[in-house]
Amino acid sequence: MQIFESIITVVKNDLDELNHVNNVRYVEWVQEIAKQHWLKKASITTLENYFWVMTNHCIEYKSSALLNDTIKLKTYIKSSEGAISSRIVEITNNNTNQLLAKSETKWCLINKKSNRPVRISEEISALFQ
Question: Could you say which of 32, 42, 65, 111 would form a disulfide bridge with 118 (CB–CB 3.0 to 4.6 Å)?
């Protein structure tokens, strides 16, 4: 399993009316780290031929994040079968290691030319192992 991480700092625009990170922002972070992971690992040719679409999203909120908190996003592929890949994202407070949220998303690999789902090749699967 290949883990990809990113560190961010909570800014004012991340907050809701309770001065906690808005739940919608966590969903955006999940999507963004998945995209960053794909762009970092995939070759130019692979990026020219394929893209991912989210088909299912489940997120558990465990604790709040506040303004100026340093947040660690950690993601990895849990499993892949056919055209579907299951990705885990763990969001923690980088200073305390407290789990703030955990997400499992399902992504479908799409061929750019046909706009149809395509089986995940060994080459693509190997990018994340």
Answer: 111
- pLDDT, one tens digit for every residue, the chain (129 residues): 789 999 999 999 999 999 999 999 999 999 999 999 999 999 999 999 999 999 999 999 999 999 999 999 999 999 999 999 999 999 999 999 999 999 999 999 999 999 999 999 999 999 888
- The stretches of the chain forming alpha helices (DSSP H) are 23-41, 44-49, 122-126
Contact between 92 and 99 under an 8 Å Cβ cutoff? The reply is yes
Range of the domain at 91: 4-126
| CATH code assigned at 85 | 3.10.129.10
Backbone torsions φ then ψ of 90, nearest 5 degrees: -110, 130
Q: How many domains does the chain have?
A: 1
